[in-house]
Amino acid sequence: MTRSVEAELPVWPPVNAARGPFALLAEDEQERYAAPVTRVRLPTGATAWLVSRHADVRRLLRHPAFSSDLTRPGFPLLRPLPPQTAEDGKGSFIRMDGAEHSRLRRMLTAEFMIKNVRRIEPLITQTVDRCLDDLAAVGPPADLVSTFALPLPSMVICHLLGVPYADHDFFQAHSRTLLSRNEPMERVQAAVRELQSYLRQLAQERLAHPDAAADDLLSRLVRERVEPGELELDELVGMALLLLIAGHETTANMLGLSVLLLTRRPDQFALLRDEPERVADLVEELLRYLSIVRTGLARVATEDVEIGGQLIRAGEGVIVLIALANRDTEVFDDAEGFDPYRQAHQHLAFGFGVHQCIGQPLARAELRLALVGLARRFPDLRVTAEPEQLPIRDNAVVFGLDVLPVSW
Ligand code: HEM
């Protein structure tokens, strides 16, 4: 493709804060990205394919010829990759393929299985209650993000990992920097290094002072994997960093957006209190409709593959738009509408295939317990700003709200 033709390509992701928190694309953008497979230009100047149909997304995410390794040539980065050292990316299995990926992922699968998450539900409920107490003590009015939506998943993942929550200002600020697409590369790299050295210190303390009774994930992985020589300390650090970031930024944003959506529909907010047995389905529809990983999942083809009638050549980048797949009318009737009674289980908000979110049972439990807890304790909760006035975190890997002013 010549340079001038490339310059004409639509840019992904589109920058348009005016679309508000619920529309995935503004009206004038919809046509630009309407084709099942669209060629786009990325902020780095590179080009990539956007794939947006539910069936194509599933096929692609299951296909072994698409790599998650962001150091491969052609990988569709949304910001330039800082120069990588041998240590970078160690343990971060979200960016690995094949046996390398499954070796590390397998060490965590049991941890996040539904039956094990069920065991920690009392801890989640306790944490929900504690955050609700804090909300009551602060307001009304209050900011729901900083007093509830962010602390809750953050406290839970800290507890599971064995990271002191007292350090939350440090790691929350650094995770934000890491996930932002606007931060200069040097700041992103510095944030990664600081988080790594923080977690390395925690892991080293466990190595130096083993406590056979300690039941947090860091202690267990040190005892069961690092000490026998199955896992390097730096790999453990990378895994812990991935869990720490993925474990709170995602659920926090889902909670903020869910509250904004549900409080605008008082009958649906009341459902949480009056019919808590419906909450599991409601959470699936929230995941589908809000689809917080809106910029998509990035992959690079390692072989020529045809997807949605388009030949994607080896070395070409692909952005998999799970958010648009979640509004595919072939799969979801009235896909643009929010319907708490819909069976939305086919949504792809947690991805699909080998990298499908390992934390989904935990995220689901947190969302269910948090939303029901909130509706019971604050039945008159309301958001005191119009959705269009709220600052949207549109420049981040995970979409969400920075603040959500509420009253009751
Ligand atoms: C992977 C979404 C919560 C840990 C993913 C992926 C998505 C996703 C779309 C796939 C990435 C890809 O294919 O490239 C979400 C959403 C969440 C959530 C929407 C909340 C509502 C969590 C939580 C944790 C977590 C609570 C940790 C406890 C991970 C990890 C991976 C992952 C470790 C990488 C899995 C792999 O590569 O094998 N998540 N996530 N996530 N998520 Fe989540």
Brief characterization of the structure:
The protein has 408 residues and is α+β, with helices and mostly antiparallel strands.
Provide an overview of this structure.
This protein starts with a helix and ends with a strand. It is an alpha+beta fold and 408 residues long. It has 16 helices and 12 strands. The strands form 4 sheets. A 5-stranded mixed beta sheet has the order 1-2-8-5-3, covered by helices on one side. A 3-stranded antiparallel beta sheet has the order 4-12-9. Strand 6 (305-307) and strand 7 (310-312) form a beta hairpin. The site of protoporphyrin IX containing FE (HEM) has 24 residues, from helix 12 and helix 16.
CATH fold name: Cytochrome p450
Which outline best applies? Answer: globular
- Tell me the number of structural domains: 1
* Share of helical residues: 40-55%
Low-confidence stretches: none
The N- and C-terminal alpha carbons lie at a distance of 57 Å
Tell how many strands the DSSP assignment holds. 12
Which series of helices and strands comes N to C?
HHEEHEHHHEHHHHHHHHEEEEHHEEEE
CATH class: Mainly Alpha
Main sheet attributes: strand count, strand direction, barrel closure: 5 strands, mixed
Per CATH, which architecture? Orthogonal Bundle
Bound molecules: protoporphyrin IX containing FE
What's the CATH superfamily, by name?
Answer: Cytochrome P450
How many helical elements? 16
